[in-house]
Amino acid sequence: MIKFDNVSKRYPEGHDALRDVSFSLNRGEMAFLTGHSGAGKSTLLKLIMLMERASRGQVSIAGQDLAQFSRDDIPYHRRRIGVVFQNHQLLFDRSVFENVALPLHISGYDEEDIGKRVRAALDKVGLLHKEKLNPITLSTGEQQRIGIARAIVHKPQVLLADEPTGNLDPALSEEIMRLFMEFNLHGTTVLIATHDLALVSRMPYRTLTLDQGRLING
Ligand code: ADP
Ligand code: ADP
């Protein structure tokens, strides 16, 4: 589902953020991506989302070489991928419902369809009863779950997360990880970047480790 072939990424004026990275993640697989700050985790995720382009090598998603995608193809590509951020990037001038509905509005779904899908997503993260509230009134763990509902509302084939438990205590972190496991059990391919090694070691999943841009296991 996700395939990197000898991928390197050099930022303008920067050094190499990724060096000769190769791995593949099968459809329906779940894995962690670990490494120190600056190891290249965010860069690897950005290449998958086409927020950045590889300098060398090939990144493919579902068998399609991303180098073939033009700027106009990017919105179509992004619809296949859900992304969860550490700071969840919620809009505090809108309700929980509206925050989750955002990607569907952008994709042009009709209102009835949006209502159904948003409620299904909120139900999956246990927040259906809070749809009318402003996210600022919810706890940190709940806010992160809204971010997850927004990432899965269009039923992406691939779910990426960049430090999704960075601001959470161990109990809430486990709760968030269990949500990712559930989506994975339903067939979603999941890749989670985290430096929480204690959490990773308690979970029965493959771990890809980056060290200064090189993949040192996986
Ligand atoms: P991580 O997510 O593991 O902390 P990043 O992918 O954010 O690592 O960063 C990898 C390296 O690339 C770091 O040295 C970082 O400073 C550099 N880097 C990341 N983004 C940019 C950018 N937009 N321009 C220049 N250098 C960058
Ligand atoms: P994280 O560690 O959570 O990935 P970073 O602090 O590495 O966050 O990066 C935050 C943002 O700044 C990212 O969009 C990244 O691409 C950008 N960035 C990181 N390092 C550099 C850099 N050296 N020059 C320019 N942009 C950078």
UniProtKB/TrEMBL annotation:
Natural source organism: Neptuniibacter pectenicola
Summary of the function given for this chain in its UniProt record: Part of the ABC transporter FtsEX involved in cellular division. Important for assembly or stability of the septal ring.
The lineage is: Bacteria, Pseudomonadati, Pseudomonadota, Gammaproteobacteria, Oceanospirillales
Give the similarity note: Belongs to the ABC transporter superfamily.
Instruction: Tell me which domain of life the UniProt entry assigns to the organism this sequence originates from.
Output: Bacteria
Tell me what this protein is called.
Cell division ATP-binding protein FtsE
Q: Which UniProt keywords apply?
A: ATP-binding, Cell cycle, Cell division, Cell membrane, Membrane, Nucleotide-binding
List the PROSITE patterns: ABC_TRANSPORTER_2
Primary location group: membrane
